[in-house]
Amino acid sequence: MEKIDSTNNKLIKTLAKLEKKKYRESFGQYMIEGFHLIDEAIKSKQKYLYILGTADELAKVIEKYDLPDDQRLIEISEKIAQHLSATKTTQGIFMVLKIFQPKNFNFNFGKWVILADLADPGNVGTIIRTADAAGFDGVIISPQSVDIYNPKVQRAMQGSQFHISLIINDVKDAIQQFKNYSVPVYASMLDPEAKKLNDFDLVAQLALIIGNEAHGVALDVAELADEKLYIPIIGQAESLNAAVAAGIMIYHFSK
Fold first, then answer.
1. Are residues 7 and 93 in the same domain?
2. CA spacing 20 to 30 A to 107: which of 13, 65, 86, 197?
């Protein structure tokens, strides 16, 4: 097993750059931190490039999973762990994985969420986690949305990224594919033509569009939907948080 104790190490310098999207895209890699996420990755049989950790944290992972003592396991110092961490206090254990986006796919079945230009990492991660919990098949993320390999999004997903399909794809193209297979597409938005969520019956398949936190679903996207829906506000709040609203709608259609 290799041991690294200098932040000037070539590999450590490379991995430290993965906090930024341009380097994740350039290297085709991303990093997750913490025992829970690594646990979910291993249980889901994710192929990884490296597991790096302090002596104590790395020993826990090796012991639990009986991992082979090979070049993919690297012991690092506390100083390096803090250097690599995307949080104020490091958890001391990291996994490096390849970014994988399928080149061929179609949306001819199942229940999906479409995230159209969402900007907040916490919202995106929470919606994906909720879709997973509700038994949805996957989430489509527009290229203009926050990067799903962002460390904040990865933490918010809490392992759900390894359970359901996550596909970065043009929203209009995805909608057209759903319509080609007669999968109903619903856009969540405040609109005079929109119907109350409770007026919608359960369907076997659907695609649910969630729009940008500040601007909602773009009009040219909404026009492609089969129906528009909204959640009535009973109290005095002006609106609901995007992730909360998405959760209510996802579970409405999950039964």
1. yes
2. 197
How far apart CA 131 and CA 156 sit, in angstroms, is 13
8-state DSSP, 70: S
Count helices and strands in the chain by DSSP H and E runs:
10, 12
What would the pLDDT profile of 49-58 be if each residue is shown by its tens digit? Answer: 999 999 999 9
- Local structure of 42: helix, strand or coil: helix
Asked if residue 103 is part of any domain, the answer here is: no
Do 170 and 143 meet the contact criterion of CB atoms below 8 Å apart? yes
Burial 158-174 (b: 16+ CB within 10 A, else e): bbbbbbbebbbbebeeb
Can you give the CATH number for the domain in which 49 is found? 3.30.1330.30
Residue among 97, 155, 150 at smallest CA distance from 129: 155
Q: Which residues pair with 3 in a beta bridge?
A: 75
Is residue 186 located within the same domain as residue 218? yes
Sign of CA dihedral 61, 67, 70, 72: negative
Q: pTM score, two decimals?
A: 0.93
Domain annotation covers residue 104: no
